[in-house]
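Researcher: We're teaching a course module on how sequence relates to structure. For the next exercise, students receive a sequence and then see the predicted structure as tokens, so they can try to spot secondary structure elements on their own. Here is the exercise chain.
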Amino acid sequence: MRDELNQGLIEFLQASPTPFHATANLARSLRAAGYQALDERAPWATEPGGRYYVTRNDSAIVAFQLGTRPLLEGGFRLVGAHTDSPCLRVKPQPEMQRQGFWQLGVEVYGGALLAPWFDRDLSLAGRVTFSRDGKIESRLIDFRQPIAVIPNLAIHLNREANQGWCINAQNELPPILAQIGGQDSPDFRALLADQLAREHDLVADVVLDYELSFYDTQGAAIIGLHGDFIASARLDNLLSCYAGLQALLKAGPEESCVLVCTDHEEVGSTSCCGADGPFLEQVLTRVLPEGDAFARIINRSLLISADNAHAIHPNYSDKHDANHGPKLNAGPVIKVNSNQRYATSSETAGFFRHLCLVEEVPVQAFVTRSDMGCGSTIGPITASQLGVRTVDIGLPTFAMHSVRELAGSHDLQHLVKVLAAFYQSADLP
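Model: And here is the predicted structure for the students to work with:
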């Protein structure tokens, strides 16, 4: 079971270099399991026992099962995660020619660790919008092969490099794509048109715009002397998306269940497809009765916000509170913050801890040091949008926001087991 889950995660990570690809892959798995796609622009006809999903902006998805148990009795069981990860996004007019090299200007998306991006074999993926026969269309593309690199400056020319240096994102991050002659005039949109032809066998009249991200082509892998770790890009937070999907696919028919994977968490979630937008609420409004019944159902519901947690690093253990240092392969982590950077309450934490105990899943707790700032998740945002009770949890991870992160190879099974039990639990607090 553990090996099968880990292999599925590796394949999902490899096939999901961008939020667009992650959403498409989640939708593909849901369709294969019998979930019906809904169009936000069309009327919906849902019924008890039905299983549905809807996407927005191609980068966020809400999947839900309407159980046979009346919603006014059982409410919804919701699991939330996000599809985006820190990366380097290509600028609208990116072409650069410096010293005979073709480079692309990039913008840093989210709170990325920048140093690990140097000397990596990079590829490019995302969504391209174009016109064809007078109509505007969009397609996802993925170059797959390494087409770019950001070489480091040699130590001989930067003697202070190992003492730390401030990376200038404007000047030092543009990836190199090719060496060009003096008369060559690189055209990035022409390159994208060629990729559309290769990948989709279509001829675009004009490439109008795009949302493209560089990514590291080194594949996800089980590593370590005893295979203790999973190493990959985008573990934050595709690991949680995948775990939520696997749990949802195991849900029985009685309870009503939701998986919501939104975009733009790494930049604040404020968008039409982010947790601080109306996407989830608008989906639920179309499914649930109005007024008093809607409020009663939400108040019988509970959200597990799943987003990776900071594991205690053996080389930097002083960065953790001594009593709250989550360990790899020791189970999911309940995240608590008195200033509501996490939405966990004693009631929701107690419920999740009890669920772990019943399922014999190890569970941990994380509180940041009192003299350090704390990150946040979609948990407080969704709780404030819907008024739904929430617990923030996540699997412990090293190198969060690096181009290559590290998690425990035993923990995915723990998380899927407890989320599957949550989706099937008859009683919520």
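Model: If you want an answer key for the exercise: The mean pLDDT is 96. The first helix runs from residue 2 to 14.
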